[in-house]
Amino acid sequence: MFETLLLLAAACAAGALNAVAGGGSFLTLPALVFSGVPPVMANATGTVALFPGYIASAWGFREDLAPPPGLTLRAVMGLSLVGGALGALLLLATPDATFRRVVPWLLLAATALFALGPRLRPAARPDAPAHAVTPAARLRAQAGVLAVAAYGGYFNGGLGILLLALFGLLGQTRLHAANGLKNLVSALLTAIAVLIYAAGGLVAWPQALAMMLAATAGGYGGARLARRIPAPWLRAGIVATGLVMAGLFFWRG
After folding, report:
1. CA–CA dist 4, 171 (Å, integer)
2. What's the whole-model pTM score?
3. Is 237 exposed, middle or buried (CB count within 10 Å of its CB: 0-12, 13-18, 19+)?
4. CB-side exposure of 67: number of CA atoms within 13 Å?
5. Each residue of 85-110: pLDDT tens digit?
6. pLDDT over 70 percentage in the chain
7. DSSP for 52-72, written as a single string
8. 152, 157, 24: which is closest to 88 by C-alpha?
9. Rounded to the nearest 5°, which phi and psi values hold at 121?
10. Closest CA relative to residue 133, chosen from 75, 78, 181, 68
């Protein structure tokens, strides 16, 4: 009973955290390992458990969902699916230890980019139309989404921070819109990863199904709550989350 309550509490809190800033896997993975699930299977099971939470949190931000300049929502969805598939396939061929050494540096860079995003973006010219995007800028935006989606399919930790940093650099000035798109992208690329994990027999389904329900409730509730939080407070919380996640990776590594 204690292990069941632990898994449900971790999944609910992880769903809410993913809706706001990402990093929910830092709660589900230790809880699953503590309950006796082998680490590799725990990683796959935690990803499966958080999948409906991404969908619920994206629905919670449905009023704010909007792509950054230069991208359409359809293009973002397609790139997310392709990138997630590539990352999941790459995970099957790459040792975990190799990527684990790179993760904390990626998290630190993404957190810094997100924190400095408003200053790094060039000021919009009053005489420039809002929809003016050069072909080169559009190509860079597509490559960025594809690369981060591949990262998410390969290793889900810190995905939310990377996506928020990317959307900020691409010119999405509305934080809630970026949050909604982050959750949609996470749901799509995780769907591909889930299919691959399930085909490989890496999912502990009894734990995953119970955690799915808790993650869904946490994801939707976290998304609705985040829309009521002032943007500066939310930005500060996301930066703090990124720093904590990077510190955990350095400590583990």
Report:
1. 43
2. 0.75
3. middle
4. 18
5. 998 888 777 776 676 677 778 778 87
6. 86
7. HHHHHHHHHTTTT--PPTT--
8. 152
9. -70, 135
10. 68
